[in-house]
UniProtKB/TrEMBL annotation:
Naturally occurring in which organism (per UniProt): Radiobacillus deserti
Family: Belongs to the chromate ion transporter (CHR) (TC 2.A.51) family.
Topology with respect to the bilayer: Multi-pass membrane protein
Stated name of the protein: Chromate efflux transporter
NAD listed as a keyword: no
Keyword annotations: Cell membrane, Membrane, Transmembrane, Transmembrane helix
């Protein structure tokens, strides 16, 4: 009975914290990783720095919404399979509800250019800068790893394609193995993944099975709901690089086919920029436009299901691999490359879309100081950013 109560206590804790993050995490996937790092690693120490970096590296490598997968993975490690689901619900539900409401009631409302939205983008600059500085100190302590991070930064800035990140991570893994295969790593990450390999294998089988079978069933039945599920599931399965890269896939699936107009698609994209949480919840808006709130729910389940199956399917094997001495050198290279990728994403799109004038940079410096030096809670920094952005827009 005590163990059962303890389990429910852990799940409620995960739900409370992830929901708070879901209500305040503006700025896109890299900013989300910053919020996660601040809350889960620095404040609550649910994972050590190395385990978190390894989890981020895995999710950067897998297709799907990287920040959502990291959140699911943290929930799994903290509270098992149910913990991953609870963490996902808390982080995702606020933006799903907001976007469904936008679709049903506020469609066409121009919120993308609101001053408070710009202020929240500046908050993301401060949060990501803080996260990158903290992770870089741990993951790039020597000149070799600093060089790998620099090369990853240059490559991902100059060649901004969906597969550049995966290619950079693969190359960094090979270089890390060559450079650090004799490296004696005495740090024990101690990551426990409470999922069996049998269940993991089932999840991977289901992932590939749905990817193959759904298009066949779609063509055989011509049922609209199955066609929707297939389009969203396939988009969530095949995209690398986060939410911004899924937009062309979704547009190609639904606009040319006449399921919704280009204007409705772009209006929803503006709304998606205005809400916290993962950009993949844009699917909830599209589904709601096409088939009401039921369509929004179906779209959300379909586009995030691949992320669940991949995380549940790879984490147990990933933990075994990361403990293998012959793999540790490769992971050191991968983690260094992730720092470069994060810095690249920090510049574009976060910095380029947020710091548009000297006053923006000054405000970002104030928010950074509030977070790093004055140690104020993240929600206060977010609220200050929204109010400050609204005030700046008046001048």
């Amino acid at each position: 009975m005590k163990e059962n109560k303890s389990t429910w206590k852990v799940l409620l804790e995960i739900l409370f914290i992830s929901t708070r993050l879901g209500l305040t995490s503006f700025g896109g996937p890299v900013a989300h990783l910053g919020y996660f790092h601040t809350e889960y690693i620095r404040r609550r120490k649910w994972m050590d720095e190395k385990s978190y970096a390894d989890l981020v590296a895995l999710c950067q490598f897998l297709p799907g919404p990287a920040s959502s997968q990291v959140g699911i993975g943290i929930g799994v490690i903290r509270g098992g399979a149910l913990g991953g689901i609870v963490s996902f619900i808390g982080f995702t539900l606020p933006s799903v509800l907001a976007l469904v409401i936008f679709a049903l009631i506020l469609e066409g409302l121009d919120v993308a250019d609101a001053g408070w939205i710009h202020g929240l983008k500046i908050v993301a600059v401060a949060v990501v800068a803080h996260a990158i500085l903290g992770m870089a100190q741990k993951l790039t302590p020597d000149i070799k790893r600093k060089t790998l991070a620099l090369l990853a930064l240059v490559a991902t800035l100059l060649w901004q394609t969906a597969f550049t990140q995966v290619s950079v991570i693969l190359v960094a893994g090979v270089l890390g193995y060559i450079l650090y295969k004799e490296h004696a790593d005495t740090e024990d990450a101690g990551l426990r993944v409470p999922i069996s390999k049998k269940f993991a294998g089932f999840c991977l089988t289901l992932f590939f099975g749905l990817l193959i079978l759904l298009p066949i069933v779609r063509e055989a039945t011509q049922i609209e709901w199955i066609a929707m599920f297939d389009s969203f599931y396939r988009s969530g399965s095949l995209v690398f690089g986060g939410g911004h890269f899924v937009l062309p896939l979704l547009e190609r699936e639904f606009v040319p086919t006449g399921w919704l107009s280009e204007e409705a698609f772009l209006a929803g994209y503006g709304a998606a920029q205005a809400v916290p949480g993962p950009l993949f919840t844009f699917a909830a808006y599209l589904g709601a436009v096409m088939n009401g709130w039921q369509g929004g729910l179906l779209a959300t389940v379909a586009i995030f299901l691949p992320a669940f199956l991949l995380i549940y399917g790879t984490l147990p094997f990933w933990d075994a691999l990361r403990r293998n001495p012959s793999i540790k050198g490769a992971l050191m290279g991968v983690n260094a490359a992730v720092i470069g990728i994060l810095i690249s994403a920090f510049y574009h799109p976060i910095w380029t879309s947020s710091i548009l004038a000297p006053i923006d940079f000054a405000f970002a410096a104030v928010l950074f100081s509030m977070l790093v030096y004055w140690k104020l809670p993240p929600w206060i920094v977010v609220l200050t950013g929204a109010i400050g952005g609204a005030v700046i827009s008046l001048y």
